[in-house]
Amino acid sequence: MTDVDDLVPDSTVRNIEQAIARSAFAELTAFISPLPTGQIVAILERLDSNERAVAYRMLPKGRALEVFEVLDPSLQSDLVLALQDEQTAELFADLDPDDRVELLDELPANLARRLLQGLPADERDMTAEILGYPQGSIGRRMSPEFVRVDPEWTTATALTKLSDHLDDAETVYTLPVTADDRTLIGVVSLRELLKAAPGTTVGQVMQPAQWVHATDDAETAARRCADLKMLALPIVDHETRIVGILTVDDALSILEDADSEDQARISGVEPLRRPYLTAPVLGLMRSRVVWLLVLAVGATLTVQVLEVFEETLAEVVTLALFIPLLIGTGGNTGNQAATTVTRALALGDVRPQDLGKVLFREFRVGLSLGVVLGGLAFTIVSLIYGVDIGTVIGLTFLALCTMAATVGGVMPLIARAIRADPAVFANPFISTFVDASGLLVYFFIAKAVLGI
């Protein structure tokens, strides 16, 4: 995914598209080759699949690999399917093992198998090791390419060891310190190695290690890396032997993907997992239609409630005027609470065990909102429609805001407790629930106050 600073003018994209259409390959090379990697990625994300493959083939070999590594795995998959076997195998072999696994998850099984078989034995073993961890675990996103040092080594020896692996190590700024059996003992930074006095051992300057298990959830591990502000977080097995590292750039990428997924589901769509302009129209439709069908079925509850209270509405037609206002306010109140708690869950501020605390807090928030909005509604509606109608609307606001905030606050916690995605329980389902239950509350209050 590209940053705003990497975007290029539409005129540049049009020039490239026209050069491709005319098969003016020399002109296309002159347009695209001098651009920075980020801008090339931004251009490729705006082209269709055939144009993207043509433009990519015009890049020099070194630039092509740089660009390929930055592309989303879905676009990497598109290019692999469009390129010749020899070029595909070369690109695949040059990827880091963790990036290679992400690409394999996007490819057809037969092609993935063929590419794996074409790797050198050591690269194939590292890739297979990562593939052995469960989907969604940090083991699938870690890098097995790291430099570990011994606590008995001098800092000079450690620096010599490090210099021998500058080309193949994922990072050199944070180094795990291990025993002979790879058991993690601590970590040491490059800064500490460089400033240590001659003869100092690694064990004298190392720090206690923070780590996560390879089978832990990827988002949880990435959040831990970000919270600890670590450049690299060691990944260990259940015997505390190091198996890989998670670098901060990979952690931020995981968190960005998770945030995009949550925002999509909160809005009632499935995440695209690829840049918008590269997503096929059918894919966009599929990402939305399921949720629309679910919400349409849920909305039938609202219709049934209206049907039950049809006679009440016939007696006091004025009540119908306030239905959109009431269910809209209730839905928004529930959505605000659900979104706030979902975000707090993602940040680790609350846990499912905090259900009681969250329920009590959101009950008080909803009650406070109900008092403010209900009091305002009572005053305005009473002046226009009379005190009786004003009382109904005011009391409904009070009850609806309290109920919506309470339910909206606890639903994400319940979702996490049953191992469901909290974002799924947010806006779409909260709105449907509050619409139906809010109408029930409204009509029961109306019947009690108006005596109908």
From TrEMBL:
Family label: Belongs to the SLC41A transporter family.
Quaternary structure annotation from Swiss-Prot or TrEMBL: Homodimer.
This chain's function reads: Acts as a magnesium transporter.
Statement: the UniProt record of this protein carries the keyword Ion transport = no
Principal localization reads membrane
Q: In the record, what terms sit under GO molecular function?
A: magnesium ion transmembrane transporter activity; metal ion binding
- Provide an example Pfam family for this protein: MgtE_N
Q: Which residues form a coiled coil?
A: none
Natural source organism? Mycolicibacterium poriferae
Bilayer-crossing residues are 365-386, 392-413, 425-445
Record's GO cellular component terms = plasma membrane
Identification of the protein by name: Magnesium transporter MgtE
- Subcellular compartments: Cell membrane; Membrane
What range(s) does the CBS domain occupy?
142-205
This protein's UniProt keywords:
CBS domain, Cell membrane, Magnesium, Membrane, Metal-binding, Transmembrane, Transmembrane helix, Transport
Record's bilayer topology term: Multi-pass membrane protein
The cross-references to CDD domains, in alphabetical order and at most eight, read: CBS_pair_Mg_transporter
Entry keyword Phosphoprotein: no
